[in-house]
Specification:
- By secondary structure, the protein is of the alpha+beta class.
- About 10% of the residues lie in helices and about 25% in strands.
- It has two domains: about 1-175, ph1033 like fold (Roll); about 175-289, no CATH class.
- It is elongated and about 70 Å long.
Length: about 290
């Protein structure tokens, strides 16, 4: 049997800066290895869409953040994620400063990121939000090859799921209205060693959130993360399948089949059952005193 390909350092082709709250908070730390998430891009017409589509499937983008001094962390550059695109689609989700998204899979994440020594390395040339070639990384006072730069970035991560090379999902480029979009979900798949799950379509979840026009209020308790946690809670909410995706087989899911809920209510929806043993609905949970 032919040996399956694995991700390695030479797959790191690109580097991109990301930011949150002007460097006062970490970006994309709510994702885990293997997750698919929408990576945001600015509305700068100079870069859209050519720059945002440069990376191809199974090429790795290193994400780094320029952070202000916070408790336990120095001011400066931190490489935090290795991600890879799952398709070649750019979508506009809002009218904010970073309205465009492209779906990525997380190959590695540094929850305790390494501070780049600015006496030895410079990320200045790739610090403008666009996707840059890995060659824009520079080592001060010496010339090094691109391969050495790739190995340096690779060495910053303790946990890299190299097997994801063979398991990056694919989403077809479909044109649709939000209310008409139907996703096929629930097919049982076994990937990433022996981890078994019911397949979800991250695109329909993004569409359900987009339909709220960024007014993310829980449909059960009306909680809003951004109101409670200014800046930190911006854009944060969860999606709940009204019919548990773990029940039944493959099904067709539409936006109307999803509910926007806070993390607490989401947990309660999966933890509470009526006298017949069925999970409570949104309206039933709302009526609980």
């Amino acid at each position: 049997m032919k040996e399956q390909r694995q991700f390695n350092a030479t797959d790191i082709k690109w580097i991109k800066s990301v930011t949150r709250d002007k460097g006062k908070a970490w970006s994309y730390f709510d994702v885990r290895i293997g997750d698919t998430f929408p990576l945001n891009f600015s509305k700068n017409p100079k870069w859209y869409p050519t720059n945002y589509l440069k990376p191809k499937r199974k090429e790795i983008i290193a994400l780094f953040q320029t952070m202000q001094a916070t408790e336990g962390f120095k001011e400066g550059w931190y490489v935090t994620h290795l991600v890879s695109p799952i398709d070649e689609i750019i979508e506009k989700e809002n009218e904010g400063s970073h309205p465009y998204t492209r779906l990525m899979t997380v190959i590695a994440i540094n929850t305790n990121p390494y501070h780049i020594d600015e006496q030895k390395w410079s990320l200045y040339k790739c610090n403008r939000g666009q996707i840059c070639d890995i060659k824009t990384i520079e080592q001060r006072h010496s010339q090094i090859s691109n391969n050495q730069k790739q190995k340096f970035i690779w060495s910053l991560f303790n946990d890299i799921d190299t097997s994801l090379f063979n398991n990056i999902p694919t989403i077809e480029d479909e044109r649709f209205d939000i209310d008409d979009y139907t996703a096929q979900e629930g097919r049982e798949r076994t990937i990433l060693k022996l981890h078994k799950f019911r397949e979800r379509d991250p695109k329909i979840i993004a569409k359900a959130k987009a339909k709220t026009e960024n007014r993310f209020y829980c449909e059960v308790c009306l909680f809003n993360f951004e109101t409670q946690y200014p800046n930190l809670g911006s854009g944060f909410i969860e999606c709940h399948h009204k019919k548990p995706i773990s029940e039944g087989d493959v099904r067709e899911t539409q936006v109307k089949d999803l509910a926007i809920v806070c993390a607490n209510c989401h947990r309660m929806l999966h933890n509470s059952k009526d006298i017949r043993g069925n999970y409570l609905s949104i309206s039933e949970l709302t009526r609980i005193d």
